[in-house]
Amino acid sequence: MSELCGWVGTVLRVDLTRGTISKEPLNEQWAREYIGGRGVAARYFYDEVDPQVEALSPDNKLIFATGPLTGTNASCGARYMVVTKGPLTGAITTSNSGGKWAPELKFAGYDMIILEGESPRPVYLWIFDDAVELRPAEHLWGSGVFETEDALKRETGLPDCAVAAIGPAGENQVLFAAIVNEKYRAAGRSGVGAVMGAKKLKAIAVRGSGAVRVADPAAMMRAQWNMKKELSDAPLTSDGLPTYGTLALMNVINEHGALPVNNFQASQFDGAENISGEHLNETRLAANKACFACTIACGRVSRISDEGVGRYAVTTSARNWKHATEGPEYENAWSLGADCGIDDFDAILKSNLLCNDLGLDPITLGATIAAAMELFENGKLDESQTGMELRFGNGDALVALTEMTAYRRGFGNEIAEGSKRMTAKFGDPDLFMGVKGQEFPAYDPRAIQGMGLGYATSNRGACHLRAYTVSAEVVGNPDQMDPRATEGKAELAIAFQNTSTAVDATGLCLFLTFGTTLEGIRPILTAATGIELDERSMLQVGERIWNLERLWNNRAGLTAADDSLPKRMLREPIVAGPAKGEVNRLPEMLPEYYELRGWSPDGEPSADKLAELGID
Amino acid sequence: MVALSGALEIEPEKCTGCKQCELACSWIQTGTFQPSKSVIRVHVFDEQASFAPYACFQCDEAWCMKACPVHAIDVDESTGAKIVIDEVCVGCKLCVIACPFGTIFFDKSSDTATKCDLCAGDPACARACPTGAISVAEVDPGAWLVDFGKHVDSAYRRATEGDEISNSPEDAR
After folding, report:
1. Which pLDDT value is given to residue B139?
2. Final residue belonging to a domain, choices A388, A408, A439
3. CB contact under 8 A, B49 and A295
4. Residue A362: what pLDDT?
5. Is A492 helix (H, G, I), strand (E, B) or coil?
6. What's the confidence (pLDDT) of residue B170?
7. Which residues of chain A fall short of a pLDDT of 70?
8. How far apart are alpha carbons A91 and A80 in whole angstroms?
9. What burial class does residue B148 get, using C-beta atoms within 10 Å of its C-beta: 0-12 exposed, 13-18 middle, 19+ buried?
10. Domain co-membership, A602 together with A478
11. A255 and A365 both lie in a single domain
């Protein structure tokens, strides 16, 4: 066995076409160069998958990867990353989730699962320590995520196993289907669930009884003690996130005039207060919930009001929705709420719950419905096509379309393609609000310049988790920068991208960075792995992964032309609010970004840069 | 009068379900992170939005002790914790069967029973808990085991203050 610490040293390889399972040692050199999670998985993916592959074909691979800190006591070390070619974007995608699924995989003895091929019939993967089996899942095909998890816990006889599953959306290859674990935690974006559905893999259920060893146990306990203290001293991780969850942002971003409304037609929402964290706490919050080993506990458990229970009747397997459900996160309250002009919290909660049960990415779902609403109001769509009065503010339409989309019923079949394809089909592609086929999250890049650059250059399409410059430009963490200025934003975006990527590689949650820095994380990583990395070399790992992903994307046919923003962001100024008159000035930032990255003006990593990073 | 003993005082309403306690407990025992070896467990009641850490209550009338045929379970004088003496334990699992709360475990790798020993008075789980849901308290079991505890307590009193010590579960009703 391996001498590795932190990592458990074994990769599980599953050939779904042949139904065979093999175990191989983790590539130690890659573990050192790319740390883990997003990094090591990207390295395997780069090595093994032709960038020209069709995302939903058997030749695409689906990788579930943990990091060396996953399953240790490091605060927030609960994450896994799903790496594959995203059907929504055609780019490499890296979709992250928490909960306890990833630690269970480590305790079972595996750092990573590589899934290849396509099963001839529905199956699920069962892992209990050394025992790994592909089992028939015909009886689960068609079930929601909740029912699947409950059924697997019953039939495997291990109620404590963790289940990551797809719902009907993944089975029906909705292009933004998610993979959901523990019912409410999701690897949400870019359609990783559709890839799993195409492979006819319904779920991965895992239970582990083994250990994650660390290089220096005493140092690990000390480092984690310090980390816990650091997080409990920092305002965002001790107060902001635990008190209001990510929804703390709703009122903040609205006040900054950066909250996109009605498919980015406006940037402040009259109903923001009704869908804010403050309002959730007063009316619907049941409890906080933490992911494994998390000392922040930002998760919300909320209840739909009695009135809302009666109002939104849809057929679903989400049996427990009358009681407690999780969420919504800020992103989802925005996409299903403000972006669709909806401030009815019950409608948002219900739609969000359905997204979890049916296995949908709520960001792309809400944004695509918002684009359809604009098409409808502009007369490009009518009721004979949509089957409903699809206007902004219509909560009933939102809930109905959520379910129709997962099953590709009626107009839901159009929503299921995402807004880039949907707006193009109905004659107004400029109404697609996103990058590389993936919809924007909840920050108007005209009001926060750095976010525009971050969206445009993100390797997996528009995303808030790749370069969260909001932190500096709005929240003032670590230093306050002017959100309207473009100076220094290229450097800022790169710093955030490299940092976030490095954190993603460790198996830690990105939210740690609201309370600490890479320098704060470093002692934990060193104690766990025994590998001394200074802050600079951690940043370089982030940079290495970023360049590798970029290289893969370039080979998949993505170019500098894909590092762009929709016309509305570049040429239509914000109409009202604090950011009135602003557009995103991407052309002022992008050339500098390429230059600082060491890329050609066409956005290709230079030979020198690749050599410096040790990428061949 | 029943002697007070040390025990973990757990406030479920403060628990977020993060399982730092399980990680810390397994670290104390093994030097690794292995929740399956933890003797404190967090039960998650999803639909009730409730999380319940549970560990040995350090019962006054400890049925594990009574059930043990080789007297491998003893009281740590300094804390009042019931502890398993590994060298004496023969791995028969009678204590696991006897415990009404499911808080004594059998460890396959060492072939012995394992249970919470209060870490000699400074429990790692309490230190690791980010929300203060776990602390050590001097407790009268009857005060917080609610009805069941009262039964146990009164049976104990009857037994100790009377003439005979009863092992019959009937007496606990």
Report:
1. 67
2. A439
3. no
4. 98
5. helix
6. 47
7. 1-2, 306, 308-324
8. 19
9. middle
10. yes
11. yes
CATH label of the domain that carries residue A110: 3.60.9.10
Q: Is the dihedral of CA A262, A268, A271, A276 positive or negative?
A: positive
Residue of B nearest to A208 (CA): B36
Residues of chain B with C-beta less than 8 angstroms from the C-beta of A217? 27, 31-32
- Which of A164, A190, A207 represents a domain boundary (last residue)? A207
pTM, rounded to two decimals = 0.93
Structure tokens of A181? 């674990």
Q: What's the pLDDT score for residue A317?
A: 42
- What's the topology of domain B5-151? Alpha-Beta Plaits (3.30.70)
Q: How many helices (H) and strands (E) does chain A have?
A: 27, 17
What string of DSSP letters covers A546-606?
A: HHHHHHHHHHTT--GGGS---HHHHHS---SSTTTT----HHHHHHHHHHHHTB-TTS-B-
Rounded (5°) CA angle A297-A513-B123: 45
How many domains does chain A fold into?
Answer: 3
Q: What is the pLDDT of residue A310?
A: 61
Token pair belonging to B140? 């009268």
pLDDT tens-digit series, residues B23-68:
999 999 999 999 999 999 999 887 677 888 999 988 888 899 999 9
B102-137 confidence digits (pLDDT tens):
999 999 999 999 999 999 889 999 999 999 999 988
Q: How far is B36 from chain A (nearest CA, A)?
A: 5
Q: How far is B81 from chain A (nearest CA, A)?
A: 24
Find which of A149, A284, A292, A353 to mutate to test the B interface (most B CBs within 10 Å of its CB). A292
φ, ψ of residue A286 in degrees (nearest 5):
-100, -40
What are the structure tokens assigned to B119, written together? 């870490």
Optimal mutation site among A66, A73, A153, A243, interface B, most CBs of chain B within 10 A: A73
> Which one, of A247, A235, A237, A296, lies nearest residue A77 by Cα?
A296
A527 inside domain: yes
Instruction: Reply yes or no on whether the pLDDT at B160 is more than 60.
Output: no
| Gap from A55 CA to chain B (nearest CA, Å) | 35
The string of pLDDT tens digits covering residues B135-159 is 988 766 555 454 444 454 455 455 5
- Given this model, what pLDDT does residue A321 score? 46
Nearest-CA distance from A244 to chain B in Å? 14
Decide if A110 is inside a domain: yes
Chain B residue closest in CA terms to A222: B128
DSSP strand pairing (A162-165 vs A201-207): antiparallel
Q: Does the beta carbon of A122 lie under 8 angstroms from any beta carbon of chain B?
A: no
Q: Would the pLDDT of B2 be above 70?
A: no
**Cβ contact A323–B18 (<8 Å):** no
Asked if A353 is an interface residue toward chain B (Cβ–Cβ < 8 A), one would say no
Q: Which domain holds residue A320?
A: 239-439
* Average pLDDT taken over every residue of chain B: 82
pLDDT of residue A303: 78
